[in-house]
Specification:
- This protein is of the alpha/beta class.
- It folds into 2 domains: about 120 residues, 3-Layer(aba) Sandwich (Rossmann fold), CATH 3.40.50.2300; about 90 residues, Orthogonal Bundle (Arc Repressor Mutant, subunit A).
- About 40% of the residues lie in helices and about 20% in strands.
- The strands form 3 sheets. It has a 5-stranded parallel sheet, with helices on both faces.
- Strand 7 and strand 8 form a beta hairpin.
- The two termini are about 30 Å apart.
- The structure holds calcium ion.
- Calcium ion binds next to loops.
Protein backbone atom coordinates (compact mmCIF):
# COMPACT_ATOMS: atom_id res chain seq x y z
CA UNK A 1 0.00 0.00 0.00
CA UNK A 2 1.27 3.38 -0.93
CA UNK A 3 1.37 5.97 1.83
CA UNK A 4 2.02 9.68 1.36
CA UNK A 5 3.46 11.50 4.37
CA UNK A 6 3.21 15.32 4.20
CA UNK A 7 5.18 16.76 7.11
CA UNK A 8 7.59 19.69 7.26
CA UNK A 9 9.30 18.58 10.47
CA UNK A 10 12.34 16.75 9.09
CA UNK A 11 13.07 15.04 12.38
CA UNK A 12 9.57 13.64 12.68
CA UNK A 13 9.65 12.62 9.03
CA UNK A 14 12.84 10.66 9.38
CA UNK A 15 11.54 9.00 12.53
CA UNK A 16 8.27 7.97 10.89
CA UNK A 17 9.48 6.75 7.50
CA UNK A 18 11.31 3.60 8.71
CA UNK A 19 8.40 2.73 11.01
CA UNK A 20 5.88 3.04 8.24
CA UNK A 21 8.06 1.00 5.89
CA UNK A 22 8.41 -1.68 8.48
CA UNK A 23 4.64 -1.74 8.76
CA UNK A 24 4.53 -2.59 5.06
CA UNK A 25 3.79 0.77 3.44
CA UNK A 26 5.57 2.06 0.35
CA UNK A 27 6.24 5.57 1.67
CA UNK A 28 6.50 8.80 -0.30
CA UNK A 29 7.13 12.09 1.46
CA UNK A 30 6.57 15.80 0.90
CA UNK A 31 7.86 18.62 3.11
CA UNK A 32 5.42 21.39 2.20
CA UNK A 33 1.81 21.89 1.20
CA UNK A 34 2.37 22.61 -2.48
CA UNK A 35 4.46 19.49 -3.10
CA UNK A 36 2.15 17.47 -0.90
CA UNK A 37 -0.94 18.52 -2.82
CA UNK A 38 0.72 17.71 -6.11
CA UNK A 39 1.96 14.29 -4.98
CA UNK A 40 -1.44 13.37 -3.57
CA UNK A 41 -3.06 13.91 -6.95
CA UNK A 42 -0.17 12.43 -8.89
CA UNK A 43 0.52 9.28 -6.88
CA UNK A 44 -3.02 8.31 -5.92
CA UNK A 45 -1.83 6.99 -2.56
CA UNK A 46 -3.82 4.39 -0.64
CA UNK A 47 -3.59 6.42 2.56
CA UNK A 48 -2.22 9.86 3.56
CA UNK A 49 -0.76 11.36 6.72
CA UNK A 50 -1.10 15.13 6.48
CA UNK A 51 0.31 17.67 8.91
CA UNK A 52 -1.89 20.76 9.07
CA UNK A 53 0.85 23.28 9.86
CA UNK A 54 2.81 23.30 6.62
CA UNK A 55 4.87 25.91 4.77
CA UNK A 56 3.78 27.24 1.34
CA UNK A 57 0.20 25.96 1.70
CA UNK A 58 -1.45 24.87 4.92
CA UNK A 59 -2.68 21.34 5.30
CA UNK A 60 -6.32 22.32 5.57
CA UNK A 61 -6.21 23.94 2.13
CA UNK A 62 -4.37 20.97 0.69
CA UNK A 63 -7.07 18.67 2.00
CA UNK A 64 -9.85 20.92 0.68
CA UNK A 65 -8.22 20.99 -2.77
CA UNK A 66 -7.86 17.21 -2.84
CA UNK A 67 -11.49 16.69 -1.94
CA UNK A 68 -12.67 19.36 -4.41
CA UNK A 69 -10.80 17.50 -7.10
CA UNK A 70 -12.46 14.25 -6.18
CA UNK A 71 -9.55 12.55 -4.38
CA UNK A 72 -11.07 9.97 -2.07
CA UNK A 73 -8.05 8.39 -0.42
CA UNK A 74 -8.28 8.26 3.39
CA UNK A 75 -6.43 11.10 5.16
CA UNK A 76 -5.22 11.22 8.74
CA UNK A 77 -4.36 14.74 9.86
CA UNK A 78 -1.72 15.64 12.43
CA UNK A 79 -2.76 18.58 14.58
CA UNK A 80 -1.27 20.60 17.38
CA UNK A 81 -2.18 19.22 20.76
CA UNK A 82 -5.32 20.72 22.27
CA UNK A 83 -6.16 22.53 19.05
CA UNK A 84 -9.70 21.19 18.94
CA UNK A 85 -10.76 23.75 16.31
CA UNK A 86 -8.09 22.39 13.93
CA UNK A 87 -9.56 18.93 14.31
CA UNK A 88 -13.06 20.15 13.67
CA UNK A 89 -11.96 22.11 10.60
CA UNK A 90 -9.95 19.14 9.37
CA UNK A 91 -12.76 16.65 9.79
CA UNK A 92 -15.16 19.04 8.05
CA UNK A 93 -12.70 19.41 5.18
CA UNK A 94 -12.76 15.66 4.64
CA UNK A 95 -10.18 14.14 6.99
CA UNK A 96 -10.93 10.58 8.07
CA UNK A 97 -9.16 10.77 11.41
CA UNK A 98 -6.76 12.94 13.37
CA UNK A 99 -3.93 12.62 15.83
CA UNK A 100 -2.66 15.41 18.11
CA UNK A 101 1.07 15.93 18.41
CA UNK A 102 2.99 14.50 20.12
CA UNK A 103 1.66 11.02 19.53
CA UNK A 104 2.84 7.49 20.03
CA UNK A 105 3.86 5.77 16.81
CA UNK A 106 1.84 2.67 17.71
CA UNK A 107 -1.28 4.81 17.79
CA UNK A 108 -0.49 6.27 14.38
CA UNK A 109 -0.07 2.78 12.90
CA UNK A 110 -3.29 1.52 14.48
CA UNK A 111 -5.27 4.50 13.21
CA UNK A 112 -3.81 4.16 9.72
CA UNK A 113 -4.76 0.49 9.65
CA UNK A 114 -8.27 1.41 10.77
CA UNK A 115 -8.89 4.16 8.20
CA UNK A 116 -7.43 2.03 5.39
CA UNK A 117 -9.71 -0.82 6.38
CA UNK A 118 -12.74 1.42 6.48
CA UNK A 119 -11.96 2.90 3.10
CA UNK A 120 -11.69 -0.59 1.62
CA UNK A 121 -14.86 -1.72 3.34
CA UNK A 122 -13.00 -4.34 5.33
CA UNK A 123 -13.75 -5.01 8.94
CA UNK A 124 -10.56 -6.70 10.07
CA UNK A 125 -6.93 -7.13 9.19
CA UNK A 126 -7.39 -10.44 7.45
CA UNK A 127 -7.77 -10.70 3.72
CA UNK A 128 -8.97 -13.86 2.14
CA UNK A 129 -9.23 -14.89 -1.50
CA UNK A 130 -9.39 -18.20 -3.33
CA UNK A 131 -8.17 -20.18 -0.32
CA UNK A 132 -5.32 -17.83 0.54
CA UNK A 133 -5.44 -15.94 3.83
CA UNK A 134 -3.35 -12.89 4.60
CA UNK A 135 -2.84 -11.46 8.07
CA UNK A 136 -1.81 -7.85 7.39
CA UNK A 137 -0.77 -7.22 10.97
CA UNK A 138 1.64 -10.14 11.15
CA UNK A 139 2.47 -9.98 7.41
CA UNK A 140 1.90 -13.70 7.32
CA UNK A 141 0.01 -15.69 4.73
CA UNK A 142 -1.61 -19.08 4.73
CA UNK A 143 -1.82 -21.11 1.56
CA UNK A 144 -4.73 -23.28 0.42
CA UNK A 145 -2.98 -26.25 2.06
CA UNK A 146 -3.23 -24.48 5.43
CA UNK A 147 0.52 -24.00 5.74
CA UNK A 148 1.82 -20.68 7.07
CA UNK A 149 3.98 -18.80 4.58
CA UNK A 150 6.44 -16.08 5.62
CA UNK A 151 6.70 -13.29 3.06
CA UNK A 152 9.41 -10.78 2.22
CA UNK A 153 8.46 -7.10 2.31
CA UNK A 154 7.85 -6.82 -1.42
CA UNK A 155 6.00 -10.13 -1.61
CA UNK A 156 3.75 -8.97 1.20
CA UNK A 157 3.01 -5.61 -0.44
CA UNK A 158 2.35 -7.23 -3.79
CA UNK A 159 0.08 -9.91 -2.37
CA UNK A 160 -1.83 -7.42 -0.23
CA UNK A 161 -2.38 -5.13 -3.20
CA UNK A 162 -3.65 -8.00 -5.34
CA UNK A 163 -5.90 -9.27 -2.57
CA UNK A 164 -7.35 -5.81 -1.95
CA UNK A 165 -8.33 -5.60 -5.62
CA UNK A 166 -8.85 -9.25 -6.51
CA UNK A 167 -11.14 -8.78 -9.46
CA UNK A 168 -9.10 -6.21 -11.32
CA UNK A 169 -6.42 -6.80 -13.90
CA UNK A 170 -3.20 -4.98 -12.96
CA UNK A 171 -0.43 -4.01 -15.35
CA UNK A 172 3.15 -4.57 -14.27
CA UNK A 173 3.65 -0.82 -14.19
CA UNK A 174 0.71 -0.32 -11.87
CA UNK A 175 1.85 -3.08 -9.56
CA UNK A 176 5.39 -1.75 -9.38
CA UNK A 177 4.01 1.71 -8.52
CA UNK A 178 2.18 0.30 -5.54
CA UNK A 179 4.92 -2.00 -4.37
CA UNK A 180 8.03 0.13 -4.72
CA UNK A 181 8.80 3.59 -3.49
CA UNK A 182 9.82 6.55 -5.59
CA UNK A 183 13.50 6.33 -4.76
CA UNK A 184 13.78 2.57 -5.12
CA UNK A 185 14.86 1.26 -8.42
CA UNK A 186 11.61 0.46 -10.09
CA UNK A 187 11.84 -2.21 -12.70
CA UNK A 188 8.49 -3.53 -13.77
CA UNK A 189 10.14 -6.70 -15.10
CA UNK A 190 11.06 -7.59 -11.56
CA UNK A 191 7.35 -7.77 -10.80
CA UNK A 192 7.28 -10.89 -12.94
CA UNK A 193 9.82 -12.49 -10.64
CA UNK A 194 7.72 -11.69 -7.59
CA UNK A 195 4.55 -12.88 -9.27
CA UNK A 196 6.26 -16.21 -9.91
CA UNK A 197 7.40 -16.43 -6.31
CA UNK A 198 3.82 -15.92 -5.15
CA UNK A 199 2.73 -18.62 -7.59
CA UNK A 200 5.31 -21.00 -6.15
CA UNK A 201 3.91 -20.34 -2.71
CA UNK A 202 0.19 -20.35 -3.46
CA UNK A 203 -0.22 -22.41 -6.58
CA UNK A 204 0.49 -21.67 -10.24
CA UNK A 205 -3.11 -20.81 -11.00
CA UNK A 206 -3.53 -18.40 -8.07
CA UNK A 207 -2.41 -15.52 -10.28
CA UNK A 208 -3.62 -15.49 -13.86
CA UNK A 209 -1.71 -13.75 -16.65
CA UNK A 210 -3.93 -11.67 -18.93
CA UNK A 211 -1.93 -11.40 -22.10
CA UNK A 212 -1.06 -7.80 -22.95
CA UNK A 213 -2.90 -6.51 -19.88
CA UNK A 214 -1.29 -7.82 -16.75
CA UNK A 215 -2.16 -10.00 -13.80
CA UNK A 216 -5.29 -10.89 -11.92
CA UNK A 217 -6.08 -13.22 -9.07
CA UNK A 218 -7.95 -16.28 -10.17
CA UNK A 219 -11.73 -16.23 -9.83
CA UNK A 220 -13.04 -17.41 -6.51
CA UNK A 221 -15.10 -20.55 -6.69
CA UNK A 222 -18.62 -20.09 -5.38
CA UNK A 223 -18.84 -21.47 -1.85
CA1 LIG B 1 4.27 21.36 10.86
Amino acid sequence: MKLLLVEDDAQLRSALVPLLRQAGYAVETAADGVDGEFLGLELEPDVVVLDLGLPRRNGLQVLQHWRQQGARFPVLILTARDAWHERVDGLRAGADDYLGKPFHSAELLARLEAISRRSQGRSDEHLSWAGVQLDCQQQLAQGPDGKAVALTGIEFRLLRYLMLHPQQVHSKTRLSEHVYEEDQQRDSNVIEVYINRLRQRFGRDFIVTRRGQGYQLRAEEPA
